[in-house]
Each structure stands twice: as structure tokens, then as C-alpha cells.
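Here comes my example:
=====
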Amino acid sequence: MGQPKKLKIFVVDDDSMCRNAFKTYINKFGYEDVTRFINGNECLDKIHENPDIIFLDYEMGEENLSGYDVLKKIKRFNPNIYVVMLSGQKAIKSAVNTLKHGAFDYIQKGEPEEEEAKIKDVLERIMEMMDLLEREKPTLLKKIFKYF
């Protein structure tokens, strides 16, 4: 990965070891603006800060607000935020549902080396997507405005 862009990244997980590990992995790849939250409500309270990427635990043990619920609220607030769901469960249905509701990817938690590799991969793919959208924006705008 080349020099990373300045991005605001949130990590939301009720497990402090996971929060800290994911922050460490993300920092290792050159992204310094990483804010950690213990639950979805804390994240939603700060969503107006417009993070670029949110790593969001699927099951945070909260009584009323699951990661899935938080995902839907994030996407209603700003559909352009890249949300990467995290889960310790191997649940295909959960993964499919989150992707249907706008998650960019779904990472199953596991061995540290695997998690680190998955995070690196997803960050690279998000950066590629951002670069592509930035390059294509003028062309897309021209196509849109020719109808007005």
C-alpha cells in the first residue's frame, strides 16, 4: 500500500481487546485518525464528524441496538460512509444481510494474522474505490448535467 490518504476511521466494538487490536492494525498501515467506541450509541453520537470508514461489530451485547441496527442508521445518515462489519460468528445470513443494507465488507474475527491481512485488504479495496470515484467524478457529473 502506498502513502495512505488522510481518513477518519471509527472502530466500534464492545470488546476492548478487539477495539485495541483493530486500531493497532489500522495504525500499522499508516492511518492515524482512528477513534474507538464501546457501543453503537457512542458511534452514532459522533456520526456528524463524518468518518470515511467505520469498522463495526455485528453483535455488541447491547439490549436494544445491534451492529446491524447501527449500520442501517449510519447508511440513512450518510450512504457514502464505508462500513465494514466485524463478527466473531460464522453466520452467512448475517453477512448477506449486512451487505444488502450497504456494508462494504464483512470480516470474521479470528487469528490476529488473519485479521490484520483482512483489514489490509479491505483498506486497499476502499482506497481503490475512493480513487476510482475521484477520477470518474468529472465524467459522471458531465453525464448527469447534460440532462439539465
